[in-house]
């Protein structure tokens, strides 16, 4: 799943009526193999796209792309995207790090799927060039139920990472602390 935070705004996990998101919904979806949705939130346009390639024993291979742009003109705001993977207690997950810092994949096993790998490709800019600016951190934590994922991320947020785009001032941004967790919950 995906959560996002525009600095100065609220942590978003779902889009619902009366929460300030101006528009959200599927633009295209065939109910099985592909879909495109768009969320407009305080000057941002988040677009998620997925496609499924049939094959294998468990539904095929899925690809998912997330694009974030600004509406109108003006400087691009600082945005944190939080991708999450959860098993709902029915399997195991293990982070796979690249260079000891970037979460490159999550390897796991689940009764329904067997062994699987979810790969996170490095972000790219328009036209396929490398991302202008990106920074990474991750949190591996237990949570007493999927309904508590937003609380887990909210309590793990730290404005301690530094964003240093070339030729621009350094800014702090929100990321998750690798030692975060829910208050009163034992680590897992």
Characteristics:
single chain; 188 residues; mainly beta; 4-stranded antiparallel beta sheet; 3-stranded antiparallel beta sheet; 1 helix; 12 strands; 4% helix; endoplasmic reticulum; Glc3Man9GlcNAc2 oligosaccharide glucosidase activity; EC 3.2.1.106; Glycoside_hydrolase_63
Q: What percentage of amino acids are in beta strands?
A: 35-45%
State Rg: 17 Å
The string of secondary-structure elements, in order, is: EEEEEEEEEEHEE
Please tell me what the overall shape is.
globular
Low-confidence stretches: none
Mean pLDDT: 81
Largest sheet: 4 strands, antiparallel
**Number of alpha- plus pi-helical segments:** 1
The overall number of domains is: 1
Query: Helix share of residues?
Result: under 10%
Separation, N- and C-terminal Cα atoms: 21 Å
Give the structural class. Answer: mainly beta
Tally of strands: 12
């Amino acid at each position: 799943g995906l959560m996002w935070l525009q600095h100065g705004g609220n942590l978003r996990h779902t889009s619902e009526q009366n929460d300030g998101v101006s528009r959200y919904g599927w633009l295209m979806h065939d109910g099985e193999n592909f879909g495109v949705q768009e969320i407009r939130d305080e000057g941002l346009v988040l677009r998620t796209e997925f496609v499924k390639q049939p094959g294998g024993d468990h539904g095929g291979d899925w690809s998912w792309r997330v694009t974030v742009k600004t509406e109108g003109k003006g400087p691009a705001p600082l945005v944190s995207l939080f991708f999450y993977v959860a098993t709902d207690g029915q399997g195991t997950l293990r982070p796979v790090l690249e260079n000891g810092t970037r979460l490159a994949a999550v390897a796991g096993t689940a009764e329904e799927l067997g062994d699987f790998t979810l790969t996170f490709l490095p972000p790219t800019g328009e036209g396929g060039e490398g991302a202008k600016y990106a920074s990474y951190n991750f949190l591996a934590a237990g949570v007493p139920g999927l309904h508590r994922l937003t609380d887990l991320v909210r309590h793990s947020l730290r404005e301690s990472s530094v964003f240093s785009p070339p030729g621009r001032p350094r800014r702090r941004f929100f990321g998750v602390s690798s030692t975060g967790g829910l208050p009163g919950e034992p680590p897992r």
